[in-house]
Amino acid sequence: TQLAGGNADMAKSKNHTTCNQSRKWHRNGIKKPRLFLRNMGFAKKCKKKGLKKMQANNAKAMSARAEAIKALIKPKEVKPKMPKGVSHNLSQFAYITHPKLGKRACARIAKGLRLCGPKAKAKDQTKAQAAAPASVSAQAPKDAQAPTRTSEYRSLSANMRTEGLV
Length: 166
Hints:
The chain is built from six helices and no strands. The chain is an all-alpha fold. Belongs to the eukaryotic ribosomal protein eL29 family. It is found in: Cytoplasm. InterPro entries: Ribosomal_eL29 (IPR002673).
């Protein structure tokens, strides 16, 4: 029985398989020497033995690794925490006594004081300067024009020049 596209027997045949080659050879009447078949049997047997040995070795290696890790891991220590809150001295003390952060604590604290100190003073000065022109503008009559920013800066710079000379 032929199909339109090809041979029906060809579609049903198992000649194109790649597994169980020795069975196919016998079915098709192709004889292989006994020695070859015997060697194939030994190969399968040895393959299974090797696989079992490999699995056993892997299990041993994994158990040894787990034991080594358990031996290396120490009981957890309580980590020192930095206190959060208002008390600055307490936080500085905790910073100094901290095992990792305390190594260069003095230098870091001094640097922090250097960096943070002038900013507070500058803010106070700017507040004082902002308050002074507001009081001046409040005293000025309504017809007078409010001083501009550039005139404020000029007057301030003139005051600073005269302060040094007095």
